[in-house]
Specification:
The protein has 476 residues and is an alpha+beta fold. 67% of the residues lie in helices and 6% in strands. The protein has two domains: 7-92, Ubiquitin-like (UB roll) (Roll); 125-300 and 326-419 and 446-475, no CATH class. The chain has helices at residues 29-40, 42-48, 98-109, 115-138, 144-166, 171-192, 203-208, 219-240, 244-267, 271-285, 289-296, 308-313, 320-355, 357-374, 381-404, 408-433, 440-464, 467-475; strands at 7-13, 18-24, 54-57, 80-85, 198-200, 211-213. Strands 2-1-4-3 form a four-stranded mixed sheet, with helices on one face. The chain has a two-stranded antiparallel sheet with strand order 5-6. A hairpin with a 4-residue loop joins β1 (7-13) and β2 (18-24). The radius of gyration is 31 Å and the shape is elongated.
Length: 476
């Protein structure tokens, strides 16, 4: 049995001639181009060497992909293709009607509202509405009943996440539903055992009827909330299946939340001391995240030869496709981890800077500077940006609460002067220093400063947590 190849008759126009030729529709154009150039003439081939070669294109369109066949490129019998220099820009379209020109420009911009936009908007609106319900449960004015309702919604959302992933094949919506389910579980855990009557947290809240149990953030309730969050995150991750990097960041946040709850329950810590302990953990965990992502992606560890026989046995060949896929997965895991670290650090900053006094302000400053300096170790912007944004917010919080707690003279000199100094340094770096090569001594100096900042966070966290006061009390 023989396979018959279809032939396609086309016309190729050059600047000086035209070539009528039949080409098979199952051969890539890059393999047919030498034949076309042979019939076009020797001078055409020679001129191609001066501008990077020739490509085939339709009139007014991009160059055709040479790796594709005529069948895949939808080249039909009698079609006219143009032999154009590879380095030349595509010719500009000429219109004889201004309305047609404006309509073509509008269509080329791709800004028309389509079915995809409507689908994404409706889905996003529904997910935002669901997410808003998680904190709203806390202020409904009930305790155990609200906790039961929250857990019921969390179970329904987890089931929907499994349905969206397995049946609808929409893992993005499934992952979002799973994360929102964990948020409902966290709120429900705070309320399930909150036996005290709901009270207004602020006078304005009482006017609006916003009530919350006064002991909702008690250590025992926070511990139940953290355990429920971890449980529902695990269920959602198993239900979705293919969004592990997304849930990796959520596990970081919930794990740190659980650590703070355990410390508060066992040692009687308030929110600020527990957050200070979490801050110390963050600066210690941050350097090991790249290797953790590497391991979770199951990439093979490189081996070092220990003798001549190992060198002879090394084939030097790896599965390039599998390794690249694993590298992409490791990159996504690292992105998820760093986003989780950034979110946790932001919560820590919000807890320690306003409520930790001078030790909390210094800890917030140190943690922000650590995030700012350690962002240098991550060359990709999805990795670096969360750390930089969190560091910037932390510095702003330190300035705001430092401004509120100082006298007028210090506000005018130190706070405003410090802001002007930071602004001048940042703008100067952005305008004049970015892209320039610096002496390696500057990099070494930054490494030393980074190590000093990491080390300084640990005693600052101990000071904020009251460890030094406890030691003095024990020694009498």
């Amino acid at each position: 049995m023989s396979v018959v190849t279809e032939m396609c008759r086309i016309t190729v126009r050059t600047t000086q001639s035209r070539v009528d030729i039949s080409i098979p529709d199952d051969v890539p154009l890059s393999e047919l181009l030498p034949t076309v150039l042979h019939y076009a003439g020797h001078d055409v081939t020679e001129r191609g060497a001066t501008h990077g070669g020739w490509v085939l294109s339709r009139l007014g369109e991009h160059a055709l992909d040479g790796s594709q066949t005529a069948h895949h490129l939808r080249i039909h019998d009698g079609e006219v293709l143009y032999l154009t220099p590879r380095s030349a820009a595509e010719p500009a379209c000429v219109h004889d009607d201004i309305v047609n020109a404006v309509a073509s420009a509008t269509a080329d911009r791709g800004r028309k509202w389509g079915h995809g936009h409507a689908r994404r908007y409706a889905t996003a609106l529904g997910l935002v509405a669901l997410a808003a319900g998680a904190p709203a449960v806390l202020y409904t004015g009930t305790t155990a009943l609200a906790g039961v309702v929250g857990f019921a919604v969390a179970l329904l959302l987890t089931a929907f996440a499994a349905l969206a992933s397995r049946v609808l094949a929409d893992s993005a919506v499934a992952a979002a539903s799973g994360l929102i389910a964990a948020a409902y579980a966290a709120t429900a855990g705070l309320l399930l055992l909150a036996a005290e009557a709901p009270t207004a947290v602020e006078p304005a809240a009482e006017t609006l009827g916003i009530l919350a149990p006064s002991n909702a953030l008690a250590p025992s309730n926070a511990l139940v909330s953290a355990a429920a969050t971890l449980l529902f995150l695990a269920l959602a991750a198993m239900a979705v299946g293919d969004r592990g990097p997304v849930f990796a960041g959520a596990f970081v946040v919930s794990g740190c939340y659980g650590l703070g709850a355990v410390l508060a329950f066992t040692l009687g810590f308030d929110i600020a001391p527990a957050a200070a302990a979490v801050a110390a953990l963050l600066v210690l965990v941050l350097p090991v995240l790249p290797m953790l992502g590497y391991r979770l992606a199951r990439l093979p560890a490189p081996t070092i030869p220990t003798g001549p026989q190992d060198v002879r046995d090394d084939s030097g060949e790896v599965d390039g496709v599998a390794v690249r896929a694993g590298a992409d997965l490791a990159d996504r895991y690292l992105t998820g981890f760093l986003r989780g670290i950034a979110a946790t650090a932001l919560a820590v900053l919000v807890a320690v800077v306003p409520g930790g006094g001078l030790p909390g302000a210094l800890l917030g400053l140190g943690l922000s500077l650590v995030l700012l300096t350690q962002a240098r170790a991550f060359p990709c912007w999805p990795h670096r940006l969360p750390l930089l944004v969190t560091a910037g917010i932390g510095l702003i919080l330190v300035v705001i609460f430092g401004f509120a707690g100082t006298s007028t003279g210090i506000r005018l000199t130190a706070t405003v002067g410090g802001l002007l100094l930071v602004a001048a340094a940042s703008v100067g770096y952005g305008l004049f220093a970015v892209g320039r090569r610096f002496s390696p001594l500057w990099g070494r100096a930054l490494d030393v400063i980074e190590i000093a900042l990491v080390v300084s966070v640990l005693p600052l966290a101990a000071w904020t947590a009251g460890l030094f006061t406890w030691i003095r009390a024990v020694k009498g």
